[in-house]
């Protein structure tokens, strides 16, 4: 089951796919911790508003303004979440899927949710 981890590091929220499985008895749950949070991708898709609200509270409390997306597989769902969060104004996305991602990024910028996108060189 694919999970995404949202990790708070300094003033950033880092988004990655979970590389190792957490304890077997937790496979079907979503683990909540303020500094490191795991969600099943299907759960996020079905509960985008709830998950974005939860992350928004963490982002506000930690004064986060930057999101770093480390895995291309996590990009689209993360952008959907960020679109619901007003505090994120910078995205650093390392593994962009060019056309599809660029289109979503431009839409978010157009909606004035994100002010700056850091692109890899």
Q: Could you explain how this protein is built, in words?
A:
The chain is an alpha/beta fold. Helix content is 35%, strand content 24%. It contains four helices and six strands, in the order E-E-E-H-H-E-H-E-H-E. It has a six-stranded mixed beta sheet with strand order 3-1-2-4-5-6. Helix 3 links the parallel strand 4 (66-69) and strand 5 (90-93). Helix 3 runs parallel beside helix 4. It is globular and about 30 Å long. Mean pLDDT is 78; it is low at 95-99.
Topology, please?
Layout: E1 3-9, E2 12-17, E3 36-40, H1 41-46, H2 48-61, E4 66-69, H3 75-83, E5 90-93, H4 98-110, E6 116-118
Parallel strand pairs: 2-4, 4-5, 5-6
Antiparallel strand pairs: 1-2, 1-3
List keywords for this structure.
121 residues; alpha/beta; 4 helices; 35% helix
Q: What is the strand arrangement across the widest sheet?
A: 3-1-2-4-5-6
Q: What is Rg?
A: 14 Å
Largest sheet: 6 strands, mixed
Identify the overall geometry. globular
Number of helices: 4
The N- to C-terminal Cα distance equals: 33 Å
What pattern of helices and strands is seen along the backbone? Answer: EEEHHEHEHE
Structural class: alpha/beta
Q: Report helical residue fraction.
A: 25-40%
Compute the number of strand runs: 6
Low-confidence stretches: 95-99
Strand content: 15-25%
Mean pLDDT, as a whole number? 78
Question: What's a quick, concise take on this entry?
Answer:
By secondary structure, the protein is of the alpha/beta class. It has helices at residues 41-46, 48-61, 75-83, 98-110, and strands at 3-9, 12-17, 36-40, 66-69, 90-93, 116-118.
């Amino acid at each position: 089951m694919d999970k995404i981890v949202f990790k708070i590091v300094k003033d950033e929220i880092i988004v990655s796919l979970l590389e190792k499985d957490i304890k077997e008895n937790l496979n079907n749950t979503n683990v909540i911790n303020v500094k490191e949070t795991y969600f099943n991708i299907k759960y996020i898709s079905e509960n985008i508003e709830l998950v974005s609200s939860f992350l928004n509270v963490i982002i506000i409390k930690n004064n986060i303004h930057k999101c770093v997306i480390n895995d291309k597989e996590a990009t689209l769902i993360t952008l959907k979440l960020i679109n619901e969060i007003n505090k994120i104004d910078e995205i650093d996305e390392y593994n962009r899927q060019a056309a599809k991602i660029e289109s979503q990024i431009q839409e978010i910028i157009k909606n004035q949710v994100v002010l700056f996108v850091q692109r890899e060189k």
